[in-house]
User: Fold GNAT family acetyltransferase from Thioalkalivibrio nitratireducens.
Amino acid sequence: MAKTETPLSGLAPSRRAAGPAVADRLSHDPVEPAREPGIRPATLDDLDALVGLEQACFEGDRISRRQFRYLLTRGHARTLVAPDPAGSSLIGYVMVLFSRGTSLARLYSIAVSGGARGLGLGRRLVAAAEAAAIENACADLRLEVRRDNAASLALFRGMGYRDFGTIEDYYEDHMEALRLQKSLAPGPDPALVRAPFYAQTLDFTCGSAALMMAMRAVDPGVKLDRKLELRVWREATTIFMTSGHGGCGPYGLALAAAHRGFEVELLVRDTGVAFFDSVRSADKKRVMQLVQEDMVKELERLQVPIVHGPVNVGALEDRFHAGRVPVVLISSVRIYAERFPHWVTVTGFDERFIYVHDPLVDVEEGERAVDSINMPILRRDFERMARYGRAGLQAAVIVGPRDLKEPGTDV
Assistant:
């Protein structure tokens, strides 16, 4: 179960947001209203001016004309510009990238011309980026800053951004990057979210990784390592999928948690065989049916409740607030533009969003673990994601406190 994201026309992961070329161009001075330039959305008519500003502000790692054109016309992005008073050129811009399917935004690049220093334009551009993110229903805005960029760090921290991670050897001179984030909507404090993070190590182990995070959330004694990841996968696998190794099914994950003494509840929309439509071979379908029937009998023996009905945000939230941690099946297409079944761990709720740990971290695409932690997803979007395949499979494994551990199992 892997994801592939389409790159932004070759646009590399940002090493530029508030980078070294911007460090002395972001002023903390109070805004002077009489001199404060307006900020508006960029258009293709601004292309030449944007390229000129980019060349003036950055010595390397510049956004090319082609990339600007792509981001202005087709990219999942918003570019805002500040014209000079005469309107003949640009004295600043800020670019925000939006994450497909989630409510995360990334301040990718910001630049202010040398002649506009001392006007507080950097602060206004950041505020405009935040407004654009809010308009796009985003819950968080994230960015990277050089550790030695004191001016930019002071600016962002002064505007409410907090450190939440680091990336070693991030810049061309091997300087470390600090990752900053600001919440744009009411939500859970990440310091209070109960589930730790564990990244799956194989394409097909998202289910076991998600279940491990849930088990650890209710029992700090659970050791998160690859041995447990593979053991849970073996216990929970559906045997067959469309291609490659089988993934974890809802009945198998519920059984793996129950065998370890956790209180478990399984929510499934219907009684059909999970992922039945993912294979064509009649023999494979029969094997999957036998495996699920055996798992159901074992769940019944362990007195694990199996609740048939819709798996919606309300049901998950009720159980979460009762001290349980849901592990939920989603379809990846809305997030990763590729259709495959995927498991995530629910970490919190607020009025607009549901927050999840996504065990999939695609390092080759420039992702870091922090990109998959407490991902905010609009409630209405999550309702659409929480189903898979033509049959609309809905499933969630609800993990509660541990009771008695059966002999022969480990955690």
